[in-house]
Amino acid sequence: MNSTHMTMIACTLFGVCHLLGACHHPRALYEDAPRPPIEVGREYENNRRYARAEAAYQQIDDIVSRNMTLDQLAAAWDSTNATITRAQRLVSAAPQKASARFILAQACYQKALLCTRYTRESQGNYPRDYVFGEQDHFYSQALQQSKIAIRLDPTLTDARLLIAKIYLASSLYDQAFKELKRLIVSHPKYARGYYALGKMYLETGQYDKVRRYLVRSIKLDPDFLDAYYLLGQYFLDIRWYDYAAKTFLEILRRKPADSPSFDMLLKASYELGKFYVEQGAYDQGILLFQAILKVYSSHEIHQSLLHAKTLLNEATQHAESDDGLGDSLPQQNSPSQEEPPLPSAEGSE
Fold it and tell me: Per UniProt, what is one Pfam family of this protein (predicted)?
């Protein structure tokens, strides 16, 4: 082949390439078609990237399908996904902000707790193995985000407390105790750290260590009613009924409707009141019922109050034959000179 032929071939190829280039064929002809937004969103959702899933679902053209899909995402897992979605958006907007990381950690922790509840109560519409997988993932994520938050802000005590809660929920008791003790050493004025330690000791049956931490918590924060409640529960557990009653009455006097332990307080106080009535200590039961009714309206408790008053009147009318009314309450497991349950000069370890 001579040089003339070579030149002709080269020119021909150049012309073809130039022609093809001039046609400007869209690259889309040679690429995969765009995936539907719902498909993209499902993939993000399956990978627990809920904020990105939400953004993808918002691109769905049909408004009915769009709203339904977004509602399903928000409502999933008792709406914990919606909380995580908002937290993920915060982290995406400010990845170096400790508070954003902590909010995400809390959201992940709440979903992990929900998974734990599902596994214990056999609730929900999810396969059991899948629920266990979600539980482990979100405990891990909560732990990771808490540690990032602490790295960004070492003074963020709530994040360190959350780490201890995660260890406790995962049955890693030694690590939980170590984390809490490290917390109160580095932040000796943090009332909730002492409360958390007292609560852990109570839950693990180490009663000799419970009281000092709860009292210390109350001394640091006299308005921390959850610590008062737990102290009362501690007295119930060791059968110091009068001290439990005094503690519950003190909380009820403060009208603790906003306290997280409010419902448990009402239940414990009511049960203790019924116990007093059953034992013939009607005055004690009446005091508890009246205190409850000042902060919470209940037909059942009101009827119990009326019944206790009736029994007291009957006992009073037959006082001669019922000498020693109220002495039938079981004796407390403590000497009479024991100090009252409310904060004293007692310190902490």
Answer: TPR_2
